[in-house]
């Protein structure tokens, strides 16, 4: 998708495509909106709109998809199953450390 964004200078609005934004994010997911704005030479509002439309949100300083991919869901499910199995194997008393009763 292509979007027009006005720059502070006069003239035609600068146009950019999602592919340009995606390429910048692949290069470095920790870029701020201000850095993306400077790289694309568009307004911050235009970058913000495109990121939202692409389903990207910033988590812990990195731009990530809002929706999890199926492999990410499977990975989380597998991790949860492993944690539950570990909990069931070792009882509560096994984890208690006791000292000498003297």
Q: What does it look like?
A:
This protein is an alpha+beta fold and 102 residues long. The chain has one domain: Orthogonal Bundle (Arc Repressor Mutant, subunit A). Helices cover 47% and strands 16% of the residues. The protein has a two-stranded antiparallel sheet with strand order 1-2. A two-stranded antiparallel sheet has the order 3-4. A hairpin with an 8-residue loop joins strand 1 and strand 2.
What's the helix and strand layout?
Blueprint: E1 2-5, E2 14-17, H1 18-27, H2 33-40, H3 44-53, E3 56-59, E4 62-65, H4 70-89
Antiparallel strand pairs: 1-2, 3-4
Helix pairs in contact: 2-3
Summarize it:
The chain contains four helices and four strands. It is α+β, with helices and mostly antiparallel strands. It has one domain (2-95): Arc Repressor Mutant, subunit A (Orthogonal Bundle), CATH 1.10.10.
């Amino acid at each position: 998708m292509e979007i027009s964004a006005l720059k502070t200078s006069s003239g035609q609005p600068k146009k950019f495509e999602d592919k340009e934004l995606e390429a910048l994010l692949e290069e470095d997911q920790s870029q701020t909106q201000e850095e993306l704005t400077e790289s694309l030479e568009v307004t911050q509002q235009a970058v913000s709109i495109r990121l939202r439309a692409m389903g990207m949100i910033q988590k812990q300083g990195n731009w990530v998809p809002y929706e999890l991919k199926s492999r990410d869901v499977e990975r989380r499910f597998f991790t949860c199953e492993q944690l539950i199995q570990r909990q069931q194997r070792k009882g509560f008393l096994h984890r208690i450390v006791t000292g000498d009763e003297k």
